[in-house]
Design a protein that fits this description.
Layout: E1 8-12, H1 18-30, H2 40-52, E2 59-63, E3 66-80, E4 83-95, H3 104-118, E5 121-126, H4 131-139
Parallel strand pairs: 4-5
Antiparallel strand pairs: 1-2, 2-3, 3-4
Amino acid sequence: MSDSAENRILRRLDESLAEPAARVLADTFAAPPWLDRCSADAALAYVRRCLADNRCPGYLLEEDGEIVAVCTGFVKPWLDDGAVREEYWIDQFCVRRDMQRQGIGSEFLRRLTEDLSGQGIDALLLTTEFAVAGEFYRKNGFTVPEKVVLMVR
């Protein structure tokens, strides 16, 4: 792998890339701090389910033909002071373990934001549980709104 961002390409996730994307997801989230016990088969089923829904575009960052980062999420409308806008909820976001801490995640978020903005998508949202991930997102411009609370039932 090269060290240059010039060799990295942002792509939409499609069926031809489902299996390698699922492997990156399963492998990355099996490591600390997540320690998720998601099998490659379950990750592939998840990716394929996302692909089956046209409101759930996934994205990849490739370098020299290899997937280095994966993002899945969904687009939904929202009302903002009488205007209808669209937002992208990030569901899963990861950088391959051997490529972490090289600025690739920040680059991926920047390029993803630019692509989505070009489609008229006004906001990116996400939830995260871990302090390490939270700091990453804060460093990349995400904030915790004072008036918003996540509630789970």
